[in-house]
Every structure is written in structure tokens, then in C-alpha cells.
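Re: that backbone. C-alpha cells:
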């Protein structure tokens, strides 16, 4: 459950793809490089990454190194150049925020479209109170208590509602998936680049 083995394999696959792209980078345009990076590197980082909620920071750092290296290859910058401006220019979310994006999107899809029972049964909308509160118009979810702090708070039934309830009400009340994705990425992008990577 520590995800060490999984993250090690993800990093190996992504670095292998990045190594191959680096060998032919001088023959590629920036746009072609971005396409190859998304196909052979970031696709590994993003696959089922909702499972990576609330990992220790050192695990995120391992994955972030892959994304940083991909940004350097894409923009042809030196190994030790500062990476934050490059990620901002490419409009790439850091790994931790990519995980948050995927979790929020999974909750959105579960709430707004037919979803498998094993997902929908874990999301319970908070009932309205009989008092008139500002939060009554918002879609907030019940966050169940967990018995195991280490693993329980990483499970979808706890991590999903936690991420969802932390979103602004304008995002939680959105009903169109395309609009939700754009607004969510904008929100997380601002959040990511106003704090340290």
C-alpha cells in the first residue's frame, strides 16, 4: 500500500520514453515534442493517478522529477535551470495537482452522470438543514470517518469528498464537463503556482 513498487515502475517507463525522445529531440519541433511527451511520458504519470491521493511528499517528488525532466527536454533548457517558469509556460500542472485534478474529475463524473455502483454508493450529498444557510445551495459531500489514518484517508470514499468539498462553490455547481475541466485546471494552476513546487 506504500505504492513504492508502482511508482518505481511508472518512473522507469516514463524515463525510458523520455530517453528515446531526447535522442531525436534535435529533429523535432516543439509541438511534435509535446505530442511525444504526452504519449510516452505524461501518459504514465496520469494513468490511474487518482490512486495516488495523500501519498508522502517524497513519493510525489519522484514523479515530479520525471515531469521536470520532460519539461527540460521539451523546452531545451539545461539540467539545473529553474523549472517553475518552464512548467508555468507549458501550462503543466505539478504531479500533486494532477492527482487532485483526476480525483475531482472522478467525483464530478460520479455525481453528474450514470456511474458504477461501487463509486456512486460512496458519495453521499450532505442533506439540507432546516435553517437557511448559504451552504444549502452548494453540493457538499459527507466525508466519512476513517479508522486507519495511513491508508483510510487515501481511499476514494474519503479522499474524493475531501478534494470535492475544498473546491470553490462555482466549480461544485458546474454541470457541463468541458466547462468543469477548464475551470478546474485554471483553479489548480493558480493554486499550484502561488505555492512552492
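Recovered sequence:
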Amino acid at each position: 500500500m506504500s505504492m513504492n513498487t508502482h511508482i518505481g515502475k511508472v518512473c522507469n517507463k516514463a524515463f525510458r520514453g523520455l530517453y528515446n525522445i531526447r535522442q531525436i529531440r534535435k529533429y523535432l519541433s516543439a509541438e511534435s515534442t509535446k505530442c511525444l511527451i504526452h504519449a510516452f511520458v505524461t501518459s504514465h504519470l496520469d494513468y490511474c493517478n487518482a490512486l495516488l491521493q495523500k501519498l508522502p511528499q517524497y513519493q510525489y517528488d519522484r514523479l515530479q522529477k520525471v515531469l521536470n525532466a520532460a519539461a527540460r527536454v521539451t523546452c531545451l533548457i539545461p539540467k539545473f535551470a529553474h523549472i517553475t517558469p518552464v512548467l508555468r509556460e507549458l501550462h503543466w500542472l505539478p504531479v500533486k495537482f494532477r492527482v487532485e485534478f483526476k480525483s475531482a474529475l472522478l467525483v464530478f463524473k460520479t455525481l453528474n452522470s450514470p456511474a458504477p455502483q461501487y463509486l456512486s454508493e460512496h458519495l453521499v450529498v450532505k442533506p439540507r438543514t432546516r435553517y437557511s444557510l448559504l451552504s444549502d445551495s452548494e453540493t457538499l459531500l459527507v466525508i466519512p470517518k476513517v479508522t486507519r489514518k495511513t491508508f483510510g484517508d487515501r481511499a476514494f470514499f474519503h479522499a474524493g469528498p475531501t478534494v470535492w468539498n475544498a473546491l470553490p462553490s462555482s466549480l461544485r455547481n458546474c454541470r457541463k464537463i468541458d466547462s468543469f475541466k477548464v475551470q478546474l485546471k485554471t483553479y489548480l494552476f493558480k493554486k499550484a503556482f502561488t505555492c512552492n513546487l
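The mean pLDDT is 89. The chain has ten helices and no strands.
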